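Run log, item B.
One chain of 186 residues. Sequence copied directly from the ordering sheet:
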Amino acid sequence: MKRYKQNEIDALALILKNDGVISVPTDTVYGLCACINKKQAYDKLSKIKNRPLNKSFPVMCLNEEQIRSIAIVDDNAAKLIRAFMPGPITLVLHKKPEAFSYINNAGEKTSDELAVRLAPSNVLEELLQKIGTPLFLTSANISGDLTCTTLEDIENTFPNIDGILEGDIAKSEASTIVDCTSSLIK
């Protein structure tokens, strides 16, 4: 698998547009990502991560408009987005029924909750702009295992992914999760 420099975003965007799965550095951990608008990409990411079908993937968006295209954003969530995003925060919102409907309509998922983040870096913003759609973004680990902390760990754990974006993470802790699906924010 090839490592890509941060000035090779066009090549990574092409991989994603062709149902690929790549690894990217975020502000918190290394992640694995795939386009949300392609069931084949979702299936590939699920298989690579060995993720149970009833557990959804977080989604990384470019801006509040992209979040609103896939999730229901009430006034409280909008305030949190504007105050803390981008940053090491993930909001749990209700998914819009029409957003990547191929996931839950076979009855695998029991809820419509969706975890969203904003792109934490300029390079990830550029990637999102080039593909024109949000990305599933999950930590780089096999479900239930420790998260990969180096590019070598990613290469050894995920030999079947389609590429790695080189870069560093700011800290090795997952983002803070804020549940906005009820009237009380948790």
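Observations after the first pass:
- The beta strands are 3-4, 22-25, 30-35, 59-61, 71-72, 89-95, 113-118, 135-139, 163-165, 176-179.
- Residues 39-49 form the longest helix (11 residues).
Flagged for discussion on Thursday.
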